[in-house]
């Protein structure tokens, strides 16, 4: 097979494509945790497989923030390493990377795992910290250097469709930097290119969401008024996921699926650019709209000569979108990603309906 599902076993791959796995079986597969879920603590321990992991992190965080309560710092590190929680602040993840002498690539992986976005080269702090990691320097030096740099000007009106190649061009520029003087000069030369870190994801979000807000005749809607955010949430995005923020009654997989599931308030905030576009929401919108972003796609959609070709096309398209947005690639060891993979194998029903059937069964015993 050409598709690079390197973390999906041949047995799992064949089962997904065979059609033998019903939504009830898929829900049971997730409920029994028959996939090895990737977690922050397991990834971190694979990057730093030494017995002093906890003490090294605790010491580093206390040195970086001497004003912090030592007991609070120790408790936070213990919770991260026991799986009780994970860091959500990008600054903390960079501090971890510096404390453990991780590489730029390893820091990128941790950032994507915990915050939805890896290192982004149109973010001033990210490029500075990445350079200091790459040159084997310390966190305090990186932090202090960044504080001496001029603030990034924010344009009054952001570009509607920022070029995706700009991030790659900027990354290449900073890769050619060798000294602190060159880093400062490169940073200042690119001031106008910084900012609007998540506009690529927002562009996709708007394109997908507009299809749901404006009912399409192709979807059987004729002369209908635009849907409100409340209607979009109820009709398309809820997918039978239980409401409420209390996760205590749920299993690990249920928590992972439910955590950060969109709601009407978050949709409105994202639409108005008060919040970033979460990776989970982008994946859900892809499934719900079936990526029907243009008229030509409908024809191509029906011309696959096999289920494998269809799944491969969706796999590469999803990864291309995620890469363009600076988000981690599809990971079959992520509960939501596995659910998306199951949904895109649908042939006789909409992907969203297939996903909703699994979710309904997955939460039926809660």
* Whole-number tally of structural domains: 2
| Helicity range | 55-70%
Straight-line N-to-C gap: 38 Å
Computed CA radius of gyration, to the nearest angstrom: 22 Å
Largest sheet: none
Quick one: overall form? globular
The H-and-E topology, N to C, reads as HHHHHHHHHHHHHHHHHHHH
Secondary structure category = mainly alpha
| E-strand count | 0
Number of helices, counting only DSSP H or I runs of 4 residues or more: 20
Q: Which residues form runs of ≥5 with pLDDT under 50?
A: 1-6, 294-301
Approximately what portion of the residues adopt beta-strand conformation? under 5%
Mean pLDDT: 85
Q: Could you characterize what this model shows?
A:
The chain is mainly α. The protein folds into two domains: 10-34 and 199-362, no CATH class; 40-120, no CATH class. 57% of the residues lie in helices and 0% in strands. It is built from 20 helices and no strands. The protein has helices at 10-18, 23-31, 40-47, 53-64, 70-82, 90-99, 104-115, 124-134, 139-147, 165-175, 180-189, 199-213, 229-237, 252-258, 264-271, 279-289, 295-301, 307-324, 335-343, 351-362. Helix 3 packs antiparallel against helix 7 and helix 16 packs across helix 20. The longest helix is centred in the last third of the chain and has 18 residues, at 307-324.
